[in-house]
């Protein structure tokens, strides 16, 4: 498997760009899929956002400066694309982002790609009630096990703020799950 710096070098080379991009997709497609899926909930919407994410990565790879890890940069693009998708859907349906999240959650149980049980669905309901930033931080830490240092690069905020957001999210989720 090719490492990140070699991959980046090949991506910026006209001769190797296409094969390097195929390798990039191979290495990161699944992780980015689940990251986006945790935000938008629907498999079909996730596929659309993932495709937009890779198009944006392909078009902008030459602007990547290397100030962060390549995967952090790609996660930031995926996160922004997912949030943009939710915002556009909310605007199109003339509802709030929270209502858009609830709508996605309502469709989640009937989604043939959702493999969770009742407890998993209840957890998704609790997560959907969180403010957007807390949702992102909780999903990235709990489901994807992303370190705060990496999350700090992706979300462009301090580790302390992320730890506080995660702690608040966990408390709110616990409260929701223990309600009668």
From TrEMBL:
Residues 122-173 form the RNA polymerase sigma factor 70 region 4 type domain. Keywords: Sigma factor, Transcription, Transcription regulation. This is RNA polymerase ECF-type sigma factor. Pfam families: Sigma70_r2, Sigma70_r4_2. One of its GO terms (molecular function) is DNA binding. The keyword Transcription applies. Belongs to the sigma-70 factor family. ECF subfamily. It comes from the Bacteria. NCBIfam families: sigma70-ECF. InterPro entries: RNA_pol_sigma-70-like, RNA_pol_sigma-70_dom, RNA_pol_sigma70_r2, RNA_pol_sigma70_r4_t2, RNA_pol_sigma_r2, RNA_pol_sigma_r3/r4-like, WH-like_DNA-bd_sf. Residues 24-90 form the RNA polymerase sigma-70 region domain. GO terms for biological process: DNA-templated transcription initiation. PANTHER family: RNA POLYMERASE ECF-TYPE SIGMA FACTO, RNA POLYMERASE SIGMA FACTOR. Signal peptide: none annotated. Coiled coil: none annotated.
């Amino acid at each position: 498997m090719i490492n990140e710096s070699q991959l980046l070098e090949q991506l910026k080379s006209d001769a190797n760009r296409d094969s390097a991009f195929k390798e990039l997709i191979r290495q990161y497609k699944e992780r980015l899929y689940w990251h986006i899926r945790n935000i938008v909930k629907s498999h079909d919407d996730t596929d659309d956002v993932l495709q937009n994410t890779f198009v944006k990565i392909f078009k902008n790879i030459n602007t990547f400066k290397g100030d962060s890890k390549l995967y952090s940069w790609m996660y930031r693009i995926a996160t922004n694309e997912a949030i943009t998708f939710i915002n556009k859907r909310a605007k199109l349906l003339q509802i709030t982002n929270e209502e858009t999240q609830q709508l996605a959650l309502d469709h989640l149980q009937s989604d043939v790609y959702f493999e969770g049980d009742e407890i998993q669905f209840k957890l998704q309901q609790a997560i959907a009630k969180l403010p957007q930033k807390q949702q992102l931080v909780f999903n990235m830490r709990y489901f994807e096990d992303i370190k705060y240092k990496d999350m700090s690069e992706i979300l462009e905020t301090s580790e302390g703020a992320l730890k506080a957001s995660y702690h608040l999210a966990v408390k709110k989720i616990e409260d929701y799950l223990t309600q009668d």
